[in-house]
Write a structure and sequence with these properties.
By secondary structure, this protein is of the alpha/beta class. Helices cover 31% and strands 27% of the residues. It folds into two domains: 158 residues, Medium-chain alcohol dehydrogenases, catalytic domain (Quinone Oxidoreductase, Chain A, domain 1, Alpha-Beta Complex), CATH 3.90.180; 126 residues, Rossmann fold, CATH 3.40.50. α4 packs across α5. The chain starts with a helix and ends in a 6-residue tail after the last strand. The relative contact order is 0.15.
């Protein structure tokens, strides 16, 4: 009898612990070793716990960016202070599950989207944490899939054109890679700012450039951009290499080249009497809120070219790594709430 009672008591004690253990895991994409997309493993992982300044978000969708592959690159993982095992991804859209003790902007149940800092990541998962400085209220006019395509690339475009180049009404800007993630937002931000936008893309994407509001669409497979865009105030370069080299000569004196893929050559900048900057995007909830306003005012549309389930993250990254994605690829993590 005593033995039976002991077994029952042990079972009662063990059950809550087991239940808690089950609740503390989630499905996620985890990188255990460096390599190609094949190292992205769909498996159980510990659910993150929010710190006092963080929110725990139930992720509905996660955006895919070329930088996401850094978590599986030994070179960039070390540079970005990423340690393995790691969950990649920096863009999320979802619903606040819990808040840290010092959080005041959000409460459980709030729809949010966020760009999580590059040294943290964690977007490719059922749950992720973000600080108040990384998150903003999700645009009401967007689905969660569309919202997940916004934060990192839109903030990159904003910080390049507005914070760094100080783009102002009446100025002209050339945006390389106008049909990509950053480029598609850059065109629309430039137009909302009152600037004239030149943009480059391949033949199939010329109509998209015009739909996004580009004043002049340039087919780089058939035309030399330097024959069309002359004396521009700003160049936003997301291509680098030969494209950057050929861009120095089209910027008017006192203008600026902002690169998100390399560092402009100071000798070339001096030779042409122009400025140059290389930027790395930083989370900024206030700027994300400004971008939200433009979205709600219908001044920015979001281009999602492909949606894949979380388990197919390797396929998504393989496409993103080509740097020829039209708009954005998004991973659907959970069903959109009704």
């Amino acid at each position: 009898m005593k033995t039976k009672i002991a077994v029952i008591i042990a079972a009662l004690i063990a059950t809550p612990v087991f239940a808690q253990s089950a609740r503390s895991t989630m499905k996620a994409i985890v990188v255990h070793e460096y390599g190609g997309p094949e190292v992205l493993k769909y498996e159980d992982a510990p659910r993150p716990e929010p710190k006092e300044n963080e929110i725990l978000v139930k992720v509905i969708a996660a955006g895919v960016n070329p930088v996401d592959s850094a978590a599986r690159s030994q070179k960039y993982a070390r540079f970005m202070n990423i340690t393995l095992p790691a969950i990649p991804g920096y863009d999320i859209a979802g619903i606040v599950e819990r808040t840290g003790t010092s959080v005041t902007k959000f409460k459980a149940g709030d729809p949010v989207y966020a760009y999580i800092a590059l040294d943290k990541g964690g977007a490719y998962a059922e749950y992720a944490v973000a600080t108040e400085k990384e998150a903003a209220a999700k645009p009401k006019s967007l689905t969660y899939v569309e919202a997940a395509a916004v934060p990192l690339v839109s903030l990159t475009a904003w910080q390049a054109l507005i914070d760094t180049a100080k783009l102002s009404p009446g100025q002209t800007v050339l945006i390389h890679g106008g049909s990509g993630g950053v480029g598609s937002f850059a065109i629309q931000i430039a137009k909302a700012r009152g600037a004239k936008a030149f943009a480059t893309a391949s033949t199939p994407n010329q109509n998209l450039l015009k739909q996004l509001g580009a004043d002049v669409a340039i087919d780089y497979t058939k035309q030399k951009f330097e024959d069309i865009a002359k004396d521009v105030d700003v160049v936003l370069d997301s291509v680098g290499k030969d494209t950057l080299v050929r861009s120095y000569g089209i910027v008017k004196k006192g203008g600026i080249i902002v690169s998100i893929v390399g560092r402009p050559n100071q000798a070339e900048l001096d030779k042409h009497g122009i400025r140059g900057a290389s930027i790395s995007v930083e989370p900024n909830s206030d700027e994300l809120a400004e971008i939200t306003k433009l979205i709600e005012e219908k001044k920015i549309k979001v281009v999602v070219s492909q949606t894949l389930p979380l388990a197919e993250a390797a396929k998504a990254q393989s496409q993103a790594d080509t740097r020829h994605t039209r708009g954005k690829i998004v991973l659907k993590v959970a069903e959109e709430p009704k």
